[in-house]
């Protein structure tokens, strides 16, 4: 299947399973028709990266997500003022923020729904660098610490009057941070408020700079499809927790079929 289709449409699971079936059969039986050889190693093991003891075979569903994520990244960071982004934002409403994704709905085209259905998960790979604060949601975006405040302080979040407030709306030059809450009724809420204020200590807006979106999928904090594929693989199969045997055979100057044979012998 050409990468063009994988980068535009969310491929249905049934088609992906059929394609994987063809690839498995080709791997074990070659191009011979009518011959069905047994699969001696799990397909999931073959799809692990070399660094985790796998064969490095492309996992098509995660590659599909990685390629679609390119459009989400363009929407968020690189071309938020592009014509196609402005048209879709006007048609589907993105909550007023230039970087916010529309909520997937039945009235969307199949193409747009393919992109935005991934947005909730893909959002977790972003981090905001504070500038003016007008594009960052104080409670829901990740901009201070490793998680959004709504996740870190769930009891306090229940008391918030304006859950969609931006950082700018919560900041006051005269009174520092103004956290507008309903009545606090428990010690846990008091404790969470103290922790929140401690987290915010020293944080200041930078009025002359725009808020900047960073991608945490690699050390350079720049989006590339290869790194996005690895990020989706980690989410799907806990690649980071796999105990593999990073084989040195892939670095040797041997024919590929020899490397694959040695890898299979080590399983």
Keywords:
mainly alpha; two-stranded antiparallel sheet; two-stranded antiparallel ribbon; 13 helices
Summarize the structure.
The protein is mainly alpha-helical and 267 residues long. The protein is 44% helix and 4% strand.
Separation, N- and C-terminal Cα atoms: 29 Å
Mean pLDDT: 82
Number of strands: 4
Rounded radius of gyration (Å)? 23 Å
| Overall structural domain count | 3
What percent of residues are in strands? under 5%
Structural class: mainly alpha
Please provide the ordered H/E string of secondary-structure elements.
HHHHHHHEHHHEEHEHH
Shape: elongated
Structural write-up:
α4 (60-78) crosses α12. The strands form two sheets. A two-stranded antiparallel sheet has the order 1-4. Strands 2-3 form a two-stranded antiparallel ribbon. The longest helix has 19 residues, at 60-78. The chain has 267 residues and is mainly alpha-helical. The chain contains 13 helices and four strands. It has helices at residues 3-8, 13-29, 43-47, 60-78, 83-92, 110-116, 119-122, 149-152, 154-157, 167-170, 187-200, 225-237, 256-266; strands at residues 126-129, 171-172, 176-177, 212-215. The two termini are 29 Å apart. β2 (171-172) and β3 form a beta hairpin. It is elongated and about 75 Å long. It has three domains: 1-42, no CATH class; 70-130 and 211-240, no CATH class; 132-210, no CATH class.
Lay out the secondary structure.
Elements: H1 3-8, H2 13-29, H3 43-47, H4 60-78, H5 83-92, H6 110-116, H7 119-122, E1 126-129, H8 149-152, H9 154-157, H10 167-170, E2 171-172, E3 176-177, H11 187-200, E4 212-215, H12 225-237, H13 256-266
Helix pairs in contact: 4-12
